[in-house]
Amino acid sequence: MNNVLSEKDYQKFLLERLADNGYVIRKASHFDRLFAMDREMLMKFLADTQPDTMDYLRKIYKDDLEDTIVSFINAETTKARGSLIDVLKHGIEISNRQLDLMYTKPATTFNPELTKKYGQNIFSVMEEVWASDKERIDVVIFLNGLAIISFELKCNTAGQSYQDAIYQYRTERNPKTRLFLFKSGCLVNFAMDLEQVYMTTKLAGNSTFFLPFNMGNGEGVNAGAGNPTFKDKYSVSYMWEDILKKDTVLDLISKFIFIGTKESKDELTGKTKKSENIIFPRYHQLDVIRKLLADVRENGSTQNYLIQHSAGSGKTNSIAWLAHRLTSLHDADNKIIFDNVVIITDRVVVDRQLQKAIMGMEHKAGLIRVMDDKCNSTDLAIALNGNTKIIATTIQKFPYIVDSVKGLKNKRFAVIIDEAHSSTAGKDMAAVTMSLGSGEQFDGDVEDMISDEIKRNGKQANVSMFAFTATPKPTTIQLFGRLNTKGQREAFHVYSMKQAIEEGFILDVLQNYTEYSTFYQINKEIEDDPRCKTNAAKRQIARFVELHDTNISQRIEVIVEHFRTTVMQELGGQAKAMVITASRQAAVKYRQAFEDYIVKKGYEGWVFVEHDTHLRDPLEDLAVSREFLRRAGI
Questions:
Q1: Full-model pTM
Q2: Tell me: the pLDDT tens digits for 559-577?
Q3: Which residue, 27, 277, 281, 566, is most buried by CB atoms nearer than 10 A?
């Protein structure tokens, strides 16, 4: 391992690693700051890959051809609805001729010409790039002459870290500089030292929001934030050994990065606002998709997969990426693996989020259909047997409409289940598995039904299940987990709650956990009454006490007064609190008790909002974005 002692050493070290990966090392003098391009590399790429088109255009524009192309690309990337990612993916059209600005890896090997052009993509890198008279960037990476990635490097041995790089991006980089112009400049900007990596896709001065791009430190559910320590290489070596390799960068641009539009309610003002952002996968998202695709490419539809990703993992985008990639995944013989991808979720809002995410990746009509409440089994049959590649539905209605779909053994399905632990908690899971496998409905106990299916039929050969959950139950692990070397079943991929907490995506609610003990005494009319000796009887007693008016009223007083005296003054007097109950019946009783207590005490301006989280992971509702925490000053 080279001994990097300064920032200059780090730059030199990184460029050497990139040169080993086939990058062309270019002098910073070749950078055109007005267009964020290396014009020479752009024209070389176009001449090598599309000579006939370039000859045709040269006859029209003559000596002005280079300036015409450069200006046109700049106009397309900087217009209101334009973007660099769109131009890279779809190219440009000049004088009725198509000019491609990059070539993606073909899904099959049937077209050797496309495979050849894929290999002709030019990756180059510059150091000490002057983006403006006052902004000198450590390292900039180019694809076919277009700037796509910037780096600010810091050396830990010199007393600096990635935090200094983040500060530099926030305070010394102008978001209006062409290299950093949102959607038109670099696709992603990395703040990197020798131990950790952070990224942003949108510079916004002091408000610039950075996300971690680290592997995680540790194994499985015990993994935390950061990166592992190695004896013979730097902790961030995965960047040049993997992420910055040509194939990975092209895969990121063509299959992962997209422009996302988000509607959100400002927690401080209550107003709804729309915002755009370039969606770039966090490391664990990229890692799980690549590993899943590699395994499916090798094993087809023979396996099930358990993805144990904590709240705050960005699950909606992970599911969208997976669904999108599975629709076009081919095996070693160039055969499509799945005919249809079915997404099952018990959150209606995710249907809309998924649809926006998937359509942001590829604008293709009919690619995805969301089965709303108006859809029936006939609509589903049409979708499954038609050209719709992705069908999204809620778990509550899916079993009823899928029951009429029979005889689908000749088709192969990828079924992606959001929050699998809730999906396997009822007959829903049985209906999904058996109907798609042309089996029969089993009316017994859920646990008996699952075990009976496995004993009688095993896994359905034409269906692969991809189960996403933060907190898998033992039955879920048994159904979806994969055997490890110890003979135990475990998740295929884990993004731990510990890592999510340490990275700041969810709160560790146990840090401020206060326990209250409940004391009560039950009098028996008959001392030897055997009905109160069973566990079932004890549960009934506990439930009676839990829902008793006296118990609830005493708890309500503690909750309300704690909130009133300690919490409600936060966030400018707009603070909120959440009460989680064990059942809908309890929720109703607590709501009534809250209102009675507030009226009794004469408190005004209190608002109670019912939110049904039945069959959901409660931690999902406790996930608080780092951006909101920062803005709120918490």
A1: 0.82
A2: 888 888 888 888 777 788 8
A3: 281
